[in-house]
Amino acid sequence: MHFQKLTSAILSGVLAVSAFLPGIAAAAETTAFKDVPAGSAIAEAAEYLRSVEVLSGYPDGTFRPDQKVNRAEAIKIIIGPLLKKEALDQLTSTPFSDIKTGEWYLPFVEAARQNNIVDGPPAKTSFNGTQPVTKMEFIKMILLAYRIDPNAYSEILLPLSSDVTDPTAWYYPYLRYALTASMTMITSEGTFDPGRELTRGDTALILYRFLMYRNGKRTQALLSEAESEILIVLGSLQENNPEQAEFASARALLAARGANAGAPNQPLVQGALKITEAFRAIVRAYRAGINQQFDETIRLCGDAWNLATRGKELSPGLANLSDQVQTLAKNLAESARAAKAAPASP
To answer: Does the predicted model carry a pTM greater than 0.70?
Structure first.
C-alpha cells in the first residue's frame, strides 16, 4: 500500500485529546465602553489599557474599536507610557520633513527616532504619520520600544502560514517573536495578514497581550494555542496536506517555546514543549515518507517517541497525549518500513 494511504489509516484512529491546560477562563463581564461587548477579548484589553492610562475612550463613552489607527496615533500609544511628560516636552524639533513644529505627535516620533524605534533621515526622510499603521509595523515598534531582541529564536526559520513563507522577509523576526509572546495568531483562514491596517481594537489586543506576557500572564494562552495548532497538525495530516501541517507544527513550536521562556521551571510547560517538539518530528517524518526517504521517516519517528517519553517524564499528567504520540510514531515508522519493503512499481 502507498505510504500516504497507510498513514491516513493510522491518523483516522488518533484521538483529538486536550492535554496541556484547562480552557482559559472567560473575561469578566464588565466594560467601561458602551460600544465594546462585555466579556470580549477587546473589552478586557481596552479596560486594562484604560486603567494604566495607555489608551482612553471618547467623551461619549465609546472606544470605537473598528476605527483605523494611523502611524502617529500608533507611536503615541507605544511611546506615551514609556516617557515622562517632562522628557517629551524637551523634544520640540525633528528631522522628519513632513512633521511641522508644534505638531501634537512630534515629541513621540522624535523620541522613537532617537531610540531607533523608527528609521529617520537619511534612511527615511518622511514619517507619514497620517497613513494607517500596519500590523507588522506596530508589532515591530512595540518590540523595539521594549528592547526586545528581534533575533530571539533565530534558530527557527520556518514558513508559518500561506502568507508568511519567507524567513528573510523584514518582518519575519518580529512576527516570530510575536508568536512566542501570544501577541498575534492565525486567522480562521490560516493567515497572518502582516500588511493589514490596524484598528483601535487590534492595537489594544496586540499591546495588551504583549504587556501580559511580560508580566508572566500568558502562559496558559500560549499552551492553549500550541494545543490548537497540534489539532490543526492532525487534521492536516489526515487530509494529506503536509504543507498546512508543517505551518501549524512550526506555530505550535513557537507558542510552546514562548510558554517555556515565560515559565521555564514549570514541569507542565516543560513537558508540553517536548510533546510539541514530538509533533514537529512527526510532521517531518510524514514529509520524508512522501518523498520516499523512508530511513529518515523511521529516524524522525524515533525522535518523536523519545521526545514524547521525555514529556511524560517531565509532566505525568501528559501521559495520555504522550502515549498517543508514541502510537502514531510507531505506526508511522511501520508504514515507512512497509513502503520501503514493497516491490517497486513497474
So the answer is: yes
The answer to whether residue 337 sits within a structural domain is yes
Quick check: 12 and 333 in contact, CB under 8 A?
A: no
- CA torsion, ordered 148, 177, 270, 8, to nearest 10 deg: -170
Three cell numbers at 172? Answer: 519575519
Is residue 251 domain-resident?
A: yes
DSSP 216: T
Q: Give how far Cα 45 sits from Cα of 30, 41, 64, 144, 213, Å.
A: 12, 6, 13, 21, 13
- Are 301 and 336 a contacting pair, CB within 8 Å? yes
The total of other beta-carbon atoms located within 10 Å of residue 164's CB is 24
- Tell me which residue has cell 520600544: 145
Residue 286's domain spans which residues?
1-24+219-346
CATH number, position 281? 1.25.40
- Is there a domain that residue 81 lies in? no
Provide the CA 175 distance to its chain's centre, in angstroms: 7
CB contact set of 168 (below 8 Å; sequence gap of 6+): none
Count: domains in the chain: 1
Cell representation of residue 297: 521517516
Cα 185 → chain centroid: 5
Cβ atoms of 129 and 72 closer than 8 Å: yes
CB 234 within 8 A of CB 228: no
Q: Report yes or no on 249 lying in a domain.
A: yes
Give pLDDT tens digits along the chain (346 positions): 355 554 554 454 444 444 565 443 444 455 679 999 988 999 999 999 999 989 888 999 999 999 999 999 999 999 999 999 999 999 999 999 999 999 999 999 999 999 999 999 999 999 999 999 999 999 999 999 999 998 999 999 999 999 999 999 999 999 999 999 999 999 999 999 999 999 999 999 999 999 999 999 999 999 999 999 999 999 999 899 999 999 999 999 999 999 999 999 999 999 999 999 999 999 999 999 999 999 999 999 999 999 999 999 999 999 999 999 999 999 999 999 999 998 765 5
